[in-house]
Design goal:
The protein contains 30 helices and 15 strands. It is of the alpha/beta class. Strands 6-5-4-7-8 form a 5-stranded mixed β-sheet, sandwiched between helices. Strand 7, helix 17 and strand 8 form a beta-alpha-beta unit. The radius of gyration is 33 Å and the shape is globular. The two termini are 56 Å apart.
């Protein structure tokens, strides 16, 4: 297989770009570095394409390695043929390779291996040849021994050998696998006695369920697997058995009289006993793998916009961790996230000390100039939200101060607060107080705060606990890395949690960076990074462009311009009579126009910059210290509250997308319960997946379709209003 050619075709890229990407990856360059600083070499491939190509490259290399291992094994057995070699050369998946290798793989004890040990292989071969003149019964007499007592025993043993030969045939298995996929039905029922135990009817829809294998959606595959794993469901794939047996026999049965009847029986036995259970497992495994990949991809799609939400900068924020019996934990943080004060109030049942809580919180709001309250959406959030809405109205009436509130997704806050990192950051705080700080900070800078939490605990996936943990962790780590590096990190304030995701760094080196900073004071230059223990030239090359120094000696250190391009960037400034002081003072607004008038190609030639790098550098020079998230829609700040009982069909509301799943999206519309927009209600046009239209954090307009107060469910629609609806 020509891996370069395969990747070029699959990704629809130019061959020289794919060749460059492979070389850059093999040299140890990180995906963020390649995506940002080697655009000319890659055709400006983004992070996602580079990661997908890297994964596919690893798969194809593993495939080639496995082919080599199989060739060596079959050759050592003296059974390699040109036909086998051709089949291996043409195999495009590991499954195909294993099918080819199956007849030559060392097996555990089987009925066929027992028969072979009794010397019945020649009889099996003679029967399989299906010569019309061959007298099976007479031939069987020659194989009678102490272990083979009768002619029937000999023929039965030979039939077992033939059944395994048919079962091991790669072409037959491939046809049957395709038959299961194209024409099979995946079916489920309750396991015996489990219906009564499924009190919440979690698996009620799967009690008598069937769906074509080639049509089942990934979330249903995962639901069936979980139900089976929890022993609530029995799941199987059903096919037309007689047709499947004909497929099994097709390549082996001839018109050979008595021998042919034995081969037919062997084919049927091979299908029932060996092939069907094995192929069903393989197809189920493939369904699960595909569904897992879809779920992981969905997790990636949801996680990125959540992390990349616009920060609410420079606002004094009150973090509110709601609760009932133990009270609501409150922390006030300044615009940089520094904790100013903390307390506990009891405005919710059973204490209901609302007047006392108002008095305490009004004092805090006045003392620190609180501008926004960030309230978690967990237990008692509804009661807290009602109280907060009353509180901020009274504050405005009494003092004229405008205070808004936001309900934030508190998923993972408790994980952080109980973590070693939470204890290290706030050793004197209890777990709930740390949660309140996290809730406040995740509004101010979602990326910096959420990066501290295992992404599986953030609550934007589906069935994440059923996934291959290593694969999921790797995919989510890639998202974290892409987000951190696309935003950039302040070298003098960043935590270890952020720094460890910077390209070229890891947790150990990130700790060394922080330790160096604490010992020597603020970094004044990116070059100082080379003084950090275990941070060599290679790591420096990868990480330097993503680390910012806002008040350093060189304004270029506060941009995404890579140090390798500083000299060329200075040439560019000099060419148009600008200085780095002009950059710092943001006095080069007309740089792009001047370049256009001078001639972009001419500028690139005189500065030694390629066109892609030139454009990136110009953007950075015009806005040093920019945060790409500042241009994104800000979170919705609320001043009032609604209850689910206030909702009526037809009402139009503005909401925020909380989670996108295969069957729709959950929208926060300002009541305690998120509403569901089913995929069929997202748009008037056909879409394959909700992610084509929606992403986490997006602000959307919805209408109430239905409200079920008993089940606490809200159905929403985003379709245009017509006379019919």
């Amino acid at each position: 297989m020509n891996i370069l050619q395969t990747l070029t075709q699959e990704f629809n890229l130019k061959e020289n770009h794919v060749k460059n990407i492979i070389s850059l990856l093999d040299e140890g360059n990180t995906v963020p570095f390649i995506a940002r600083y080697r655009k000319e070499m890659t055709g400006a491939c983004d992070d996602q394409v580079l990661r997908e190509l890297s994964d596919r490259l690893n798969y194809l290399r593993n495939l080639e390695q496995r082919k080599t291992e199989v060739v060596n094994s079959i050759s050592e057995q003296g059974k390699m043929t040109a036909e086998i070699q051709t089949a291996l050369d043409g195999a495009m998946t590991l499954t195909e390779v294993e099918d080819i290798y199956r007849p030559y793989k060392q097996k555990r004890k089987t009925r066929a291996s027992v028969a072979i040990a009794k010397g019945l292989q020649p009889l099996a071969d003679a029967i399989l040849a299906q010569d019309k003149t061959f007298d099976v019964f007479a031939a069987a007499k020659a194989y009678l021994t102490d272990e083979v007592a009768t002619e029937k025993d000999a023929i039965d043993g030979a039939q077992d050998i033939i059944a395994e030969i048919i079962s091991d045939d790669a072409a037959t298995r491939k046809k049957l696998r395709n038959f299961f996929i194209r024409h099979g039905e995946i079916c489920s029922t309750y396991a015996k006695g489990k219906e009564e135990k499924d009190e919440l009817k979690t698996y009620g829809m799967y009690a008598a369920y069937s769906e074509p294998v080639n049509a089942i959606k990934s979330h249903r595959v995962l639901a069936l697997n979980r139900g089976e794993k929890e022993e609530f469901l029995k799941v199987s794939i059903v096919v037309d058995e007689e047709f499947a047996k004909r497929i099994t026999a097709a390549n082996f049965v001839k018109d050979g009289g008595e021998s042919t009847q034995i081969v037919k029986r062997a084919a049927e036995d091979g299908y029932t006993r060996l092939i069907a259970p094995s192929v069903e497992r393989e197809v189920r495994a493939q369904l699960f793998d595909d569904a897992s990949e879809q779920a992981i991809k969905m997790f990636e799609l949801n996680l990125k916009p959540l992390l990349m939400q616009a920060p609410v900068k420079d606002k004094i924020t009150m973090g509110w961790d709601p609760a009932f019996r133990t009270g609501c934990k409150i922390c006030v943080v300044d615009g940089t996230g520094k904790v100013l004060d903390k307390t506990v109030v009891f405005p919710t049942p059973p204490q209901n000390k609302t007047d006392e809580a108002k008095k305490i919180l009004k004092q805090l709001i006045e003392k620190y100039g609180v501008q926004v309250i960030s309230c978690g959406n967990g237990t008692a959030s509804k009661e807290s939200e009602i109280f907060i809405a009353e509180l901020i109205k009274e504050v405005k009436t009494e003092t004229g101060r405008e205070v808004a509130y936001v309900i934030v997704n508190e998923a993972g806050a408790s994980v952080y607060s109980a973590s070693a990192l939470g204890k290290e950051e706030f050793p004197d705080y209890d777990v709930t107080a740390r949660s309140a700080v996290s809730i406040a900070r995740r509004l101010q800078d979602p990326l910096a705060e959420l990066i501290k939490i295992d992404p599986k605990s953030i609550g934007v996936g589906q069935y994440q606990h059923d996934m291959n943990e290593k694969r999921l962790d790797g995919a989510l780590a890639g998202v974290l890395e892409d987000c951190v590096n696309s935003v950039g990190v302040d070298l003098n304030t960043a935590s270890v949690s952020l720094l460890k995701y910077v390209a070229g760094l890891n947790a150990s080196v990130a700790k060394n960076v922080v330790a160096y900073r604490e010992e020597n004071g603020k970094f004044r230059s990116r070059r100082q990074l080379l003084k950090v223990p275990k941070l060599g030239e290679k790591a420096y090359t990868q990480c330097a462009g993503f680390l910012r120094i806002s008040d350093g000696d060189n304004i270029l250190d506060n941009t995404a311009v890579h140090p390798e391009s500083y000299e060329k960037a200075e040439k560019l400034l000099s060419l148009f009579s600008y200085t780095k002081e002009d950059v710092k003072a943001r006095k080069i607004d007309d740089l792009r126009q001047k370049i256009k008038a001078y001639g972009t190609a001419k500028v690139a030639n005189e500065t030694g910059l390629d066109s892609a790098t030139l454009e990136d550098i110009v953007t950075e020079l015009m806005k040093p210290g920019r945060d790409i998230r500042d241009g994104l829609p800000a979170p919705m700040l609320r001043k009032d509250v609604m209850s689910i009982s206030d909702l009526k069909a037809g009402m139009e509301l503005t909401g925020t997308v909380r989670n996108v799943v295969d069957f729709g999206a959950f929208i926060d519309i300002g009541v305690h319960q998120d509403g569901l927009v089913h995929i069929s209600e997202i748009t008037d046009r056909y879409i394959k997946h909700p992610s084509e239209v929606l992403k986490v954090g997006q602000v959307v307009t919805v209408r109430i379709k239905e409200v079920d107060l008993k089940k606490n469910r809200i159905g929403l629609t985003m379709k245009k209003k017509t006379a019919a609806n």
